[in-house]
Write a structure and sequence with these properties.
The structure is a single chain. The protein is α/β, with parallel strands linked by helices. The protein has a single domain, classed as Rossmann fold (3-Layer(aba) Sandwich), CATH 3.40.50. 56% of the residues lie in helices and 13% in strands. It has a 5-stranded parallel beta sheet, sandwiched between helices. Helix 1 crosses helix 7, helix 2 (25-43) crosses helix 7 and helix 5 (104-110) runs parallel beside helix 6. The longest helix is centred in the C-terminal third of the chain and has 24 residues, at 169-192.
Length: 194
């Protein structure tokens, strides 16, 4: 395929997915509710923990960096952690308990009911994200999932399920990064004003 045609198609697909999300009042309301809950948790001294696999793991780290450092304005740091970065913890849990427990076990050891868990899964069916959401339920922890393809099994487990449209994983991830940046911006504006 011609590189220009590929780029044009991918840009059109990305624009179309974002436009469909923008026109979905239910998804917009779900995002607003989730953002309000995150603001309340931060205001009460909580923090956010984020997890995903593959590209979504990179997005988890990206978003944690935006919270701890800054998104758009100088401000005090906000406590945030990607559960995807400690290779010793990940490999120990994976070896001893199985890969599907790598996030759930960290949640059990690190989080309290003041905190927020954000799982990112384009399919909505990543076993380790599902186990993490189940752990959040057991501990009464607010959970949010950014997903695609109708939400998958994660839809029934998360406190807030925000579903991007699009057929390609890459297109879903492009909507997720807009959601992530918007979430961080909402928190910055509410807590620091800009």
């Amino acid at each position: 395929m011609d590189p220009l045609l590929t780029l044009t198609k991918n840009l059109q697909d990305s624009i179309a997915a974002k436009k469909r999300f923008l026109e979905d009042e239910d998804e917009l309301a779900r995002f607003a509710d989730a953002a309000s809950d995150v603001i309340r948790r931060y205001s009460a001294g909580g923090r956010i923990y984020i997890a995903g696999n593959g590209g979504s793991a990179a997005d988890a780290q990206h978003l944690a960096a935006e919270f701890v450092s800054k998104l758009a304005h100088d401000r005090n740091p906000l406590a945030a952690e990607a559960l995807t970065v400690d290779s010793s913890v990940l490999t120990a849990i994976g070896n001893d308990y199985g890969y599907d427990q790598i996030f759930a076990r960290q949640i059990a050891g690190k989080m309290s009911d003041r905190d927020v868990f954000l799982g990112i899964t384009t399919s909505g069916n990543s076993p380790n994200i599902l186990r993490a959401l189940e752990q959040c339920r057991r501990m009464n922890i607010l959970s949010i999932v950014f997903t695609g393809r109708g939400g998958g099994q994660a839809k029934g487990l998360a406190t807030h399920c925000i579903t991007a449209v699009g057929e390609a994983t890459s297109t879903i991830q492009e909507v997720h990064i807009v959601l992530a940046h918007s979430l961080c911006e909402c928190v910055e504006q509410a807590l620091f004003g800009h």
